[in-house]
Specification:
The complex is a heterodimer. Chain A is α/β, with parallel strands linked by helices. Chain A contains 15 helices and 23 strands. Classes of the chains: A alpha/beta, B alpha+beta.
Chain lengths: 510, 361
C-alpha cells in the first residue's frame, strides 16, 4: 500500500510518497502562510505524472508543529472557560497557577470551582454540585467563549463527574467545544488541568488547520483518510486530532527519530540529530522514542504529556572553533553558515570546516580549509567525539553497547567508532526523516489508570481492553492491534492492592 | 522571631528535598501554596527554639496518607488546621506555635501553611531531622513521651481523635486506618508538646538548616559553581562518591518502595539500599554510611536531591552523607531507626568525616 507522509514545519514542508518502506518520491518546499498552498505544492511534486493512478494512496499522515508553535508564540489561541470539580478538596491552588502572564491573559475565561470529584478509590468526595454546574453553564454561555475545559479530581479513575458536567454544559451551551481531562489521562491535577485548558484553547485553530489540510488534499485530487501524528510517534484520525490538538505537541523530534528507525531498519538505538547549532539526542526502544520522566513545559506551562526524552547540546555543523587555546562553541554560525564558514569563503572556523579538512564531508571549497593543521583537526575531532560519547552514555539505560543512528545535516561530525557503541549508522535520506516517520506511523491507544481490588492480571487485561478501544477510536484496525508496553506499579501507602497500570497498544491505520 | 522571606521559600523546598534523603519529594505544590499565601500578604513567622517558653504549647503537624492523593487533591493545610482546633478543644488549651514532625519533603511546608492560616509562629525544629516513613520514628516517640492524644481531620466535616494509644505503633496503625477512610490523606496534629519538651527532645534548627542548604544550592547555581563542597561544609557531611548511576532495581512491598542503586566513579562502586529513603551505602562492598544518618543523592549538575522513585541509569550524581541528630543515634533512637529497625543485620556505624581513610574527599 502507498502512503504519503507530510511534515509541515515552521520553515519547510516536506513530503514523501512511500510504497511499503521504499521512498518513491520526496520533496522539500517552503511552508506557506496559509499552509494549504505549501502542502498543495509539495503534493503536486510527489503526485506528478499521474502517480496516484498507478496505485491507490492508502493514507495521508501529516506531522505539524502548528499547535506547539501557537502556544509558544501565543497566537491563534482562544479564551477558554475552566471548570474544576473537587471542592472542598483541590481548593488550595487555583487554575492557571504559574502560567506565564502573557499566555494566561489570552486564555483565561470564566473559571469555576465546584463541589464534587472522587476519592482515589472511586467514592465521591462530596455529591457533585449539579445546580452550581447549571449556573456555571449559563455564565459560560453568556460569556461568549467557544471552548471549555472540565477537570475533576481523580477523573482518570472515574470520569462520571466530568461527563455529567459536560452534559449539563451541552444542554445550556451546545456551541461550546469541551475537553474532559479524563480523556488526556494521567494523575496530577494541575498538570492534567493545564493540558486540558491548552487543548480547549486550541480547538478553533485545530479545526481551521485540519480544514486547510483537507482542502489541500481534496484539491490535489486525493481522498485517502487523513491522520495527524502525535508526540508518541503514532497517528490519530484527523477528526480526533481536531478534538485533541495537544496530543500533536512535539511530534517533530518524534517523527525524526521514528523516521531514522524506519530508514535504517534499526529499532533499538540512540539517535543523534546533528543540526547547525545543536545536536538532539534521543533513544529508540522498539522503534519508538523513550519518553521523558519529568514534567514537560509547553510555552511555560507545566503539563504531563508523553514527550520524547530528548536532550540538546550545543554541537552542530556551524559551531565555532577558536584555536590556541582551543575553544569550541557554544556559539554557532547558525543559519548564516553559508556566509560565515571558511569552506564558503567566510571568516569563521566552524566544525564543518574541520570536517571538510578531515575529508569527512564534501561541502563548499575544500581548498579554503587546506591550511588547517593536523593537530587542530585531531584535537577538535577528539573533543567532538568526547562530547558525543558523553551524551550517548547519559541516554543509555544499561551499560551494554548500543547502535547509534546519525541523522541531520551535521551527521558527518559523528565519529565512526565510539566507546559503548556497537555501530554508527549514517542514515541515508535523513533530510526527509520527519515525513518518513509520519508516513510510516501506526495508530496507538493508551490508558494510565489506578485499579483496585483486582488481581494484577485482571487489572492489566482491563487496561488492555480500554487501550484497544481507544486505538480503534483513533483509527486503528482492530485485528492489527499489538501490545507496545505495559507498566504496573503498586502504590505506596494506598490500601486495597492499588495498582497503577499503564498500557499502550499500536495497530495499523485503516 | 522573624518572618521567613519570600526568596527563602524556594530554598526551603530544595533543602527539604536534600533532607528527604530520597524519600520526601521536592515539595513543589506546597511551595506554590506558600507563595500564594505570600502573594496575599501573609508571612510565616519562624520562632527560634531558644525563644520558646517552657510552658508554651506546640502543635506537631504532618500530612498522613499517600503522596499520590495530594497530586490530585492538592495540599490541604485546612485539614491540619482543623486537627489543631480539634486538639485545642479536646485538651481545652490553645496552642502558641506549630512545628513539623519531619523536615524532609512535603511536610516541611505544612507548619508554614497552617501557621499563616491560624496566625501562629513556626518553631524552627522538627522531630526527625530528615524524612522517615512512619510516625513512631519521631524523636518525641523515641524519647518515650506520650503519643496521645492524636487528632486528624479532612477537608469535609470529619474529625477523628485518638484519645489514648498503647504506644506509637498503635497511633500509627489507628491513624493510618482513619486516614485511609478519609481518602488516604489527612491533616494530623500529634500529642501537644510543651516548649520545654521541644527544647529537650526536638531536632532543633531544622527549618533554618533546610533553608541554608537550599540557599547554598541556589547561590552556587547562580554562580555556575559546584554546591556539593559547600553543602558538606554547612552540613558537617562527607562525600561518599561522585559518579554515574549504572544500575537501579526497584520493587514495592508492604507499601514501601524498596530497591538498590549502584553508582560507579573514581574507579570505585557505591551500592545504596533504599526503603522509601536511602538507608545503607556500601563502597566496594564495605558499609560506609547507614540509617539514621542521612544518605542523599544529588544531581551533579543541579545539586537537587534525586528521589528513590525517579533515580535512573546514567544520571551523574554526588552521593553525600549528613549526620543524624544525636537523639537518633542514641541507643533508644537506634532501636527505632537504626539499621536493624530497617531489617539489616548489622549495627549502626557513623560515617567517616571528610579526610578519613577509605572515604574519597
Amino acid at each position: 500500500m502507498r502512503r504519503i507522509g507530510i511534515d509541515v514545519g515552521g520553515t519547510n514542508t516536506d513530503a514523501v510518497l512511500l510504497e511499503g518502506t521504499t521512498i518513491l518520491r520526496a520533496i522539500k518546499t517552503p511552508t506557506t502562510e496559509d499552509v494549504t498552498s505549501g502542502i498543495k505544492a509539495a503534493l503536486a511534486h510527489i503526485l506528478k505524472d499521474g502517480v496516484a493512478r498507478e496505485a491507490p494512496i492508502g493514507a495521508i499522515m501529516i506531522g505539524t508543529t502548528h499547535f506547539t508553535n501557537a502556544v509558544v508564540e501565543r497566537r491563534g489561541i482562544a479564551r477558554t472557560a475552566v471548570v474544576r470539580i473537587g471542592l472542598p478538596a483541590a481548593a488550595s491552588l487555583p487554575p492557571f497557577i504559574e502560567w506565564p502572564e502573557d499566555l494566561r491573559s489570552k486564555v483565561e475565561g470564566p473559571t469555576f470551582l465546584l463541589r464534587g470529584g472522587n476519592e482515589f478509590d472511586g467514592r465521591p468526595i462530596v455529591p457533585f454540585d449539579r445546580d452550581g454546574m447549571r449556573r456555571a453553564a449559563a455564565e459560560i454561555a453568556a460569556s461568549g467563549v467557544d471552548s471549555a475545559a472540565i477537570t475533576a479530581v481523580f477523573s482518570p479513575l472515574t470520569d462520571a463527574c466530568e461527563e455529567e458536567a459536560a452534559a449539563i454544559l451541552a444542554d445550556v451551551a451546545p456551541q461550546v467545544s469541551v475537553t474532559l481531562s479524563s480523556a488526556l489521562g494521567r494523575i496530577g491535577l494541575i498538570e492534567r488541568e493545564n493540558a486540558t485548558i491548552l487543548n480547549s484553547c486550541l480547538h478553533g485553530l485545530a479545526r481551521r488547520t485540519v480544514k486547510a489540510f483537507r482542502t489541500a488534499i481534496a484539491e490535489s485530487g486525493l481522498s485517502a483518510p487523513l491522520y495527524l501524528t502525535q508526540n508518541d510517534g503514532t497517528v490519530m484520525l484527523a477528526e480526533l486530532a481536531e478534538r485533541f490538538p495537544v496530543l500533536c505537541f512535539a511530534s517533530g523530534p518524534t517523527n525524526s527519530m521514528r523516521g531514522a528507525a524506519l530508514l535504517s531498519g534499526v529499532e533499538n538505538a540512540i539517535v543523534l540529530d546533528v543540526g547547525g547549532t545543536t545536536t538532539d539526542v534521543g533513544m529508540l526502544q522498539g522503534g519508538f522514542p523513550r519518553e521523558a520522566n519529568s514534567k514537560v513545559d509547553i510555552g511555560g506551562v507545566r503539563t504531563s504529556f508523553r514527550m520524547p526524552d530528548v536532550v540538546s547540546i550545543a554541537l552542530g555543523g556551524g559551531t565555532l572553533v577558536t584555536p590556541a587555546p582551543l575553544r569550541i562553541g557554544p556559539e554557532s554560525a547558525g543559519f548564516r553558515i553559508t556566509e560565515r564558514a571558511r569552506v564558503f569563503g567566510g571568516p569563521d572556523l566552524t566544525l564543518t570546516d574541520i570536517g571538510v579538512a578531515r575529508g569527512k564531508a564534501e561541502i563548499g571549497d575544500k581548498a579554503l580549509v587546506a591550511e588547517i593543521g593536523a593537530e587542530l583537526q585531531a584535537d577538535t575531532a577528539s573533543w567532538v567525539a568526547g562530547k558525543i560519547a558523553d551524551m550517548i552514555d547519559r541516554m543509555k539505560t544499561s551499560a551494554a553497547d548500543v547502535p547509534v543512528l546519525a541523522v541531520g545535516g551535521g551527521a558527518f561530525l559523528v565519529p565512526d567508532e565510539l566507546p559503548g557503541v556497537s555501530q554508527v549508522v549514517k542514515v541515508v535520506n535523513a533530510g526527509v526523516a520527519n515525513a518518513v516517520g509520519a508516513a510510516m506511523a501506526q495508530v496507538s491507544g493508551e490508558i494510565d489508570r489506578i485499579f483496585q481490588n483486582r488481581s494484577r492480571e485482571d487489572a492489566i487485561a482491563e487496561a488492555r481492553a480500554i487501550a484497544d478501544e481507544r486505538a480503534v477510536a483513533a483509527g486503528a484496525r482492530k485485528d492489527s492491534l499489538a501490545l507496545l508496553d505495559v507498566e504496573d506499579m503498586p502504590l505506596a501507602y494506598v490500601p486495597g492492592n492499588a495498582l497503577r497500570v499503564r498500557v499502550r497498544v499500536v495497530g495499523d491505520a485503516l | 522571631m522573624r518572618a521567613i522571606e519570600l526568596h527563602e521559600l524556594e530554598a526551603l523546598a530544595i533543602g527539604a528535598g536534600i533532607l528527604g534523603t530520597g524519600g520526601g519529594n521536592h515539595p513543589h505544590l506546597e511551595l506554590l501554596c506558600a507563595r500564594a499565601a505570600y502573594a496575599a500578604g501573609k508571612r510565616a513567622q519562624l520562632l527560634a527554639p531558644e525563644e520558646l517558653q517552657d510552658d508554651m504549647r506546640i502543635a506537631v503537624l504532618a500530612f498522613m496518607g499517600a503522596p499520590l492523593v495530594t497530586k490530585e487533591r492538592l495540599p490541604e493545610p485546612i485539614s491540619a488546621c482543623r486537627a489543631v482546633r480539634l486538639m485545642e478543644r479536646h485538651t481545652e488549651r490553645k496552642f502558641d506555635a506549630v512545628m513539623s514532625v519531619e523536615i524532609g519533603g512535603e511536610n516541611a511546608f505544612l507548619p508554614l501553611l497552617v501557621g499563616m492560616e491560624l496566625d501562629l509562629p513556626v518553631v524552627d525544629a522538627d522531630a526527625m531531622g530528615r524524612a522517615f516513613p512512619e510516625a513512631q520514628m519521631a524523636s518525641f516517640a523515641i524519647r518515650g513521651l506520650d503519643v496521645y492524644p492524636f487528632a486528624l481531620a479532612d477537608i469535609r466535616d470529619n474529625e477523628v481523635l485518638i484519645a489514648k494509644a498503647e504506644n506509637a505503633l498503635w497511633t500509627e496503625r489507628l491513624g493510618r486506618k482513619a486516614a485511609i477512610e478519609l481518602g488516604s490523606i489527612a491533616g494530623t496534629c500529634a500529642a501537644p508538646r510543651s516548649g520545654a519538651e521541644v527544647k529537650a527532645h526536638g531536632i532543633l534548627g531544622s527549618t533554618s538548616r533546610a533553608i541554608r542548604l537550599g540557599d547554598i544550592v541556589l547561590d552556587a547555581r547562580r554562580r555556575h559553581e559546584d554546591a556539593v563542597a559547600a553543602i558538606l561544609a554547612a552540613g558537617d557531611g562527607a562525600l561518599l562518591l561522585r559518579g554515574k548511576v549504572i544500575d537501579v532495581s526497584r520493587r514495592t512491598t508492604d507499601g514501601f518502595v524498596r530497591g538498590k542503586v549502584r553508582i560507579a566513579g573514581e574507579g570505585r562502586t557505591l551500592d545504596i539500599d533504599f526503603q522509601n529513603e536511602f538507608s545503607v551505602a556500601r563502597l566496594d562492598g564495605e558499609i560506609i554510611a547507614c540509617v539514621p544518618d542521612l544518605i542523599t543523592v544529588l544531581d551533579a549538575e543541579t545539586t537537587e536531591a534525586i528521589g528513590t522513585e525517579v533515580i535512573r541509569y546514567g544520571q551523574r550524581v554526588a552521593v553525600v552523607a549528613l549526620p543524624a541528630d544525636p537523639i537518633m543515634t542514641s541507643p533508644e533512637g537506634l532501636h527505632t531507626v537504626g539499621p536493624r529497625a530497617f531489617g539489616f543485620d548489622f549495627d549502626y556505624r557513623p560515617f567517616a568525616r571528610r579526610g578519613h581513610a577509605g572515604v574519597p574527599s
